[in-house]
């Protein structure tokens, strides 16, 4: 199974399968901490995207993508027996 990690407008978290957005319930064995971090990352992206002030506090494209890459590595480690995980870098261009 291939899992892709990237944001989308108003998504609840940034984890996608080939058939669309997933939810934490799709991955019951994920650590609560990782679920919380992925959800928080998406919430920050939602609140900062398309706003001039989004670059405050290091949350510009580079900071956003670096944090998403870190979370994707943790997700890959937790799903290593279940799925391959990759990030989509389109979020670094917003």
> What is the alpha-carbon Rg in Å?
13 Å
Low confidence ranges: none
Described by its quaternary structure, the protein is: single chain
- N-end to C-end Cα span: 28 Å
| CA-based shape | globular
Structural class assignment: alpha+beta
**Mean pLDDT, rounded to whole units?**
84
Give the strand tally: 4
Number of domains: 1
Determine the number of helices (DSSP H or I, runs of at least 4 residues).
Answer: 2
Quick one: biggest sheet? 4 strands, mixed
Helical content class: 25-40%
Q: H/E order of the elements?
A: EEEHHE
Q: How are the strands of the biggest sheet laid out side by side?
A: 3-2-1-4
Percentage beta strand: 5-15%
Task: Summarize the structure in words.
By secondary structure, this protein is of the alpha+beta class. The chain has one domain. Helices cover 37% and strands 14% of the residues. The chain has two helices and four strands. The protein has helices at 32-48, 61-78, and strands at 2-5, 15-17, 20-21, 84-87. The protein has a four-stranded mixed β-sheet, covered by helices on one side. α1 runs antiparallel to α2. The chain is globular. The termini are far apart.
């Amino acid at each position: 199974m291939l899992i892709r990690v990237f944001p989308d407008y108003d998504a609840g978290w940034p984890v996608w399968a080939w058939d669309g957005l997933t939810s934490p319930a799709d991955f019951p064995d994920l650590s609560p901490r990782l679920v919380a971090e992925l959800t928080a990352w998406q919430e920050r992206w939602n609140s900062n995207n398309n706003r001039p002030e989004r670059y405050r506090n290091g949350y510009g494209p580079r900071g956003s993508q670096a944090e998403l890459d870190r979370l994707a590595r943790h997700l890959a480690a937790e799903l290593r027996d279940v799925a391959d995980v990759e990030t989509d870098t389109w979020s670094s261009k917003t």
